[in-house]
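ok trying again, last paste got cut off:
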Amino acid sequence: MATRAVSAPYAHIPNALTLARFALIPVFVAMVLAADGAGSYAAAAVFALAGATDQVDGWLARRWHVESRFGKLADPLADRLMIDAAVILMWLDGRLPLAALALILARDGALLLGYPLVRNRGYDFEVNFLGKLATWVLYAALVGVVASDEGTTWPLVLFWTGVALAVAAAAQYLTKALREVHQ
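nice, full thing came through this time. structure:
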C-alpha cells in the first residue's frame, strides 16, 4: 500500500501531539506530587499517554511525509523533559537512586547542550533505533515505577535496562557527531 502526503489540517497532527506531550508534563508533575510519595495509577496513565503520543507522532509524520524541522527538534525535547521530570520526581520520592538521576540528567544534558554546538557544523540529528528503543524502555519502566510503591523490583530492572540502552545510544550519537563534524 503506497503512502501519501495528507492535506494541511492533518499534516499538523504530529506536531500537535508533540505539543500535547509538552502540555502533559505539568499535569503529570501535579499528579505525582498529589500522590505524596505513593504509587499513582492516574499519574502513570498520563505518563503512558505521553509515551504513546511519542510513538504516534513520529509514525504519522513519517507515514504521511510531513516530517518537519520543528518536529525533529521538539519531539526528542518533549521526551527528554517528560522522562527527566519523572526521574526527578521518583528520585525525590526515594523510588530511584541518585545514580539514576545523575545518569539520565547527564545524558540528556549532553544531548540538549551538545546539539547546538554541532548543528551548524554539518551534523544532521536523526534519532536512531537504539535511541528509540531506549526511550520506549524508559517510558515503560517509568510507568511501572510511577504506578508501583517503593521497593517494587521489576520496574527498576526495566529502568536500568533503559538506562544502559540510553547510554549506548548517546555514545552512538556522539560518535556520529564527531565523525560528521570533523569531515
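cool. The domain at 9-181 is CATH 1.20.120.1760 (Four Helix Bundle (Hemerythrin (Met), subunit A)). Residues 7 and 64 are 9 Å apart (CA to CA).
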